[in-house]
Structure formats: structure tokens, C-alpha cells
Design brief:
Radius of gyration: 22 Å
Helix content: 55-70%
Structural class: mainly alpha
Strand content: 5-15%
Order of helices and strands: HEE
Largest sheet: 2 strands, antiparallel
Strand order of the largest sheet: 1-2
Length: 51
């Protein structure tokens, strides 16, 4: 009975760890994307950085 409880707790911890890692990875990807996005303005021929 204790073994099932321990395995259940470990599985829940693994799932929580995976969700935290995925969230962190998505945030890092969005930050990297934001840092490289540029918009070229048609009327002034210059680059404008977003954010």
C-alpha cells in the first residue's frame, strides 16, 4: 500500500516538473522571438524594433 502511494506521489511530481519545464521553454522561446522581430517601415526606409 505504501508503495502505491509513493509511486503516485512521484508520478505527480514528474507531471508537475514537466509542466513547469514546458512553461519555461515556451516563455524562453517567446522572449527570443520578441528580441529578433523587426518591422521595416515603408515610408522612411528604417528598421523599427518591436517591444
Amino acid at each position: 500500500m505504501h508503495t502505491c502511494l509513493i509511486l503516485n506521489v512521484l508520478n505527480n511530481m514528474k507531471a508537475a516538473n514537466s509542466m513547469a519545464l514546458l512553461t519555461s521553454s515556451k516563455l524562453s522561446a517567446l522572449r527570443a522571438l520578441r528580441s529578433v522581430l523587426i518591422v521595416y517601415t515603408d515610408d522612411r526606409n528604417q528598421f523599427v524594433y518591436l517591444f
